[in-house]
Amino acid sequence: MPDLAYLNGKIMPIGKATVPIEDRGYQFGDGIYEFVASYAGRLFMLEEHLDRLERSMGELTFDAIAREDIKKAILELFEQSGYPRAGIYIQISRGVAPRNHAFSRGMSPQFVMTIRAVKELPKSLRENGARAITVKDLRWGRCDIKSVQLVPNCLAKQKALDAGCDDAIFVSDQNVVREGTSSNLFIVSDGRLITHPLTHNILPGITRLAILGICHSAGIEVQESFFGIEELYGADEVFLTGTITEVLPIVRIDDKPIGDAAVGPITRRLYALLREKALADTPA
Ligand code: PMP
Questions:
Q1: Do 132 and 262 reside in the same domain of the chain?
Q2: Ligand 1 within 6 A of 91 CB?
Q3: Maximum CA pair distance of the chain?
Q4: Which one of 58, 86, 117 terminates a domain?
Q5: Is-above-0.90 flag for pTM?
Q6: For residue range 72-98, what is the model confidence (pLDDT) as tens digits?
Q7: Quick check: is 72 catalytic?
């Protein structure tokens, strides 16, 4: 089965797909993206990803591409690849024009995608839990937009790996725990979940949304409220959520154990419930 690229309406091998050097996504980071995954041949929460994609484009005032056209292209690429467990990266930039900070209306957005088989996280990480560091949140004030401007996220992730850890957690100057470099964050305290509310400072994660729904059905209490680093260190359990991350336990942060430094029962249960939902959901 082939890894494929989609480039403004054409499907081709990834190595053959190139964009013009004056693409504004390339020169200004003037682009947005999505990442959708499939389970057993079905794309998980595709409509929710499309909702977020449309919102990101709207917030950056891109000229619109019809939702139905985007969806059709995604499904066509997915079908051509034949991967049952696929990861589809979707990127839309404002368009191509001679370099100028100001942009004109009526540009044609550039729409590209790649599809590959999902590389699952190591089993040992899921079974033993991951280690994280905290880092200062140096990102811009609109982290709710899924923009391709990810340099602070890349630097933070690399800092974590260089420190022998698995990921980094952004904490604001005012001591508010935000999210991971490519994931949302939940803490468990006295049997109740707490996660950052939806503001301009975090991405409205689709997996976060799935977890909120799962908790609602399972009768697990969730509070969307701000919390600081002391509550993070003192939590019974901490986990990250994301399309590839799914539900990933964090057992050490800044070299301090979380709870008894083992994967907790609520994290374990939510991972199982998320997988169950992903495998049961009907195709979009
Ligand atoms: N926060 C950030 C900063 C992310 O990059 C991601 C992954 N795209 C998430 C949260 C999780 O979002 P999702 O569950 O939609 O993958």
A1: yes
A2: no
A3: 57
A4: 117
A5: yes
A6: 999 999 999 999 999 999 999 999 999
A7: no
